[in-house]
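Table S5 (text form). Sequence records supplied for joint modeling of the two-component complex.
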Amino acid sequence: MIAYEIFQLLVYPGIFLLLVLAFFYEWIDRKFFARLQNRYGPSYTGPFGLFQPVADFVKLLSKEDIVPIACEKAIFSITPILYFALPLTALFVIPISGQTSLIAFEGDLIFMMFIFTLIVVMVFLAGWGSANQFGIVGGVRAALQMLSYEIPLGLAMIGPAIAAKSFSISTIAQWQSQNLSWGIWLQPIGFAVIVIGLLAELEFVPFDIPEADTEIVAGWRTEFSGRKLALFRLGRDLELVLAAAVITSLYLGGAQQLGFIPAIFTFVIKTVFVVLLFSFLRAVFARFRIDQMTAGMWKYLLPLAILQIILIQFGVGR
Amino acid sequence: MGFASTIKVPFGPQHPALKEPENFIFEVDGDTVVNVTPRIGYAHRGMEKAFEIRTYIQNVYLAERVCGICSHAHTTCYVQAVEELLGVEAPPRAKYIRTIIAELERLHSHSLWVGIAAHEVGFDTLFMYAWRDRELVMGLLEEISGNRVHYAMNTIGGVRRDLTPELVAKTKSCMDAFETKSKHYLRIMQTEPTFEKRAAGVGILKTKDAVELCAVGPTLRGSGIKNDVRADDPYAAYDEMPFNVISHEGCDVLCRTLTRCEEMLESINIVRYALDHMPSGELRAKVPAAVPAGEAVSRVEAPRGELIHYARSNGSTKPERYKIRSPTLANIPALCKTLIGCHIADIPIILAGIDPCFSCMDRMVFVDAKANNQWIWTMQELRNSKK
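The corresponding structure-token record, covering 705 residues in total, follows.
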């Protein structure tokens, strides 16, 4: 039994599957984004360039790892590892290959929201610790951005929890399939809010303010190179998987078993749909300025999120 | 212990927002720029000196290479100056061909700028589309002249290639295709809310400041002044072309954008009119190799604004002194004015707003400000300084 549990943890549906999904979703994002922009996107490594993200990762691993003299050594070396490990940890509480996740307990939704915040704290520390003007500005922008989108994002995650009367992601997903209705139909406003919030969490256009390349070079990642940058990139891919998985579990019914189709297939199809949605959204906008973004989040997104909660309290969408 | 009230943020010489090496030091108070110090000269290539050691006909090719985008504007300006010294005039058909190429060049330069501006505000999709459609004009120019960038159409006394009837037909169909694209971009710039949020009210250059700081081109026209060399001091065949000088009253980056987008539509109409009314006849006048002594100044409306060339001849086959004042240099003081008071995040789009072309602009002069004297290095001194 222990051998099976270790297999579950390391291979399926554990770390190995998640890494494969991370690389695969980066490819989908890059390819679809490129096609929207009338470019070809990755096309050389593997069929349709499928292995390009892996190739990039391996290439970065082999590159020189430069540590600036002025940087905060401990923070500089720990943040990439944590940035990679945090989304991976959070993915364990999300049901992927069945109705229940690997680790499920009452309150894991709160745990996951906490991890979302920690990821941004890592971003801030990475920017701050690299002792670079662009890095510091990027880190501060990331923190400022988090202060504005975190509350609406949290409220949008709480909505389905109120409806399902549980703070466990697995229970919320099960409730949707038992109820035969997904969160997106019951709480459409909440769905819009969570998509916008996670777009900001992932630092996608129009919220790529912390790493706006024409303004502050690479933002908080400016000083990182070699395997540290590789870990940041992989962490970003895992974050993309996490964001897609959260939306799938809370609003799209989660990993449902449909007749003979195993749950993992429905999970992948739904998450791919979310990734395509993210790619589409980041292709059609220009970048906001940080003050415009903060004002917009507090003025429009937060009231919308509260409105959704009020509607749920009045019995609409549960 | 106190903290410095402002911090200095360097922009360049290597920076993703700047496509060419140039350095700006911003003094920043919080998120607001309080002062800016430009440091130009990183892309100095010794062009003016090179003009003085080449013959007039060789200099046509050198003038072509002053800029990688507005190459035709520079050759037109150069050959006009030399033609004035020689006292010859290009035949009418040559003037029309010069006009057509100049407007095609304006089209591809402006659509390049639309892409850059979109990229600076993170709108990469529009950037990709604008540069894809720019290829229409680039391909057309290649068919006309054989080259995408350095067309080599101008020569002293006329042009080197003719526009055959097939090329005229091709140009017309290309203009039709490009017009729909340009209208599309104009509509995006007018209606896309995220772009408007980043461009409207950003980089204000008041009409009074624009005039006092000698801004030129779309930067000046975006501040409400209808100033265009093509209309004010017509050269080539512009005196026969009906066209509107576009200007906008808003004084911000959005108005500079709209000015350029609408100028693209005007350029398309100019090309169409010129193609329909092109006279037949000679392509070039015969000119002697030696140029009589004298001075000449020539002005051209390059895509970025008013371009001035000055030539002084001592009667030999080489110019004695040559001076190029490119529009970017004229816009630098106005640029520094617009940057003061802006957010850090707005710096790239304001910088891009003047459509900078730094390598055309950089000149070098040695100045000792304390002793109040200035001098120029000789070629030998330049060579020695490398070691």
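Note: Residues 92-120 of chain B form the longest helix (29 residues).
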